[in-house]
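Structural prep section.
Before we set up the soaks we want a predicted structure of the protein with dinuclear copper ion in place, mainly to decide which crystallisation condition to try first. Input record follows.
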Amino acid sequence: MPVRNAATRPRVGPVPWLCLVALAAAGCSPERYPQTALLPLSEFARIGDYVQDQTFYWALGVFVLVEGALLYAIFRFRGRPDDPEPKQIHGNTTVEIIWTVIPALILAAIAVPTVRGIFETAAIPRGDLLEIEVVGHQWWWEFRYPEYGIVTANELVIPVGRTVHLRQNSADVIHSFWPPRFAGKRDVFPGRETRLWFAADSTGLYPGQCTEFCGIQHARMAFHVLSQTPEEFKRWVARMQALGAPPAAPGPAAAPGGDSLRTASVGARLQGQQAAADPQVAQGEQLFRNKGCMGCHSLQAKGAPTALIGPNLANVGERAYIAAGWLKNTDENLEAWIRNPQALKKGVLMPNLGVTPDEAKALRAYLRAHK
Ligand code: CUA
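Run finished without errors. Recording the tokens verbatim:
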């Protein structure tokens, strides 16, 4: 029978170890994996990060002490062939009291910052808050800015330094809103408002994610937080307001949010000159109307109808992502999405409308003009 010893045992080559190191290093890369709560960019996120750090350091200390004691005992008191039977004992009150009291003290030490953090993050701060209504939909996010009368989708645009106060609701099932660099998770319910606040302290585009299972495309219910300087944000608001003041409806006045708003060709009005100059954009506008896109999507940021099924597309031409934060907003992806959304995100409410490649190009050109 072959004997396995150090000489015959198959040696583990360097490859698995290198893979392990690469994996660990990859986990530390905020560029490639930016959806992390370990690199906080707001006071709210720092509170959570502090609790996590405290818990980790306590756990690390316990791990080192317990594993150290275990290894010491294994080697120091290892049984040898001629050892006598060890002394048999049953319980030791002193030791049991010690190992009950120490964990209780450690848990108390962790509880103090945890409970303090819960109260700090639950209290809505006072001052100059920017209120934003967040509405979860299967499977995308709607953001309404009552202060400016505008609405957008999937890209939460905020000014750096100003506290945003998110008032959250769901249009269908339970979702959970999580912008990890800025704040913890908050569940989003139909018929019950939950709130979240944070003030970003740096600019940039940061990913977020729905973190409550909400249907088959839950994993693709992402979003981005676009944090801008106050000046950039002001310009963005002004642009969004211009992108959708409803046109004076011809004929009898319609109720706000009525069909006259939907059928009004806001995009073409705004991009009139471009449409005239670019036949592809003009064709796209026709298609947008004839293919029924308007039944679900509004191209107005200001005064947009509230009951639409699909995301607001007023500034879709400038967004970094489409399809709720997971497809880069390239011409190729936008056309592919328009042609066959069910292939890219099966189960999404947007149906395949039998759009030809040329029609998809025209629709893409028309949407791209909206920014
Ligand atoms: Cu919405 Cu998961």
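Observations: The longest strand covers residues 130-137.
Flagged for discussion at group meeting.
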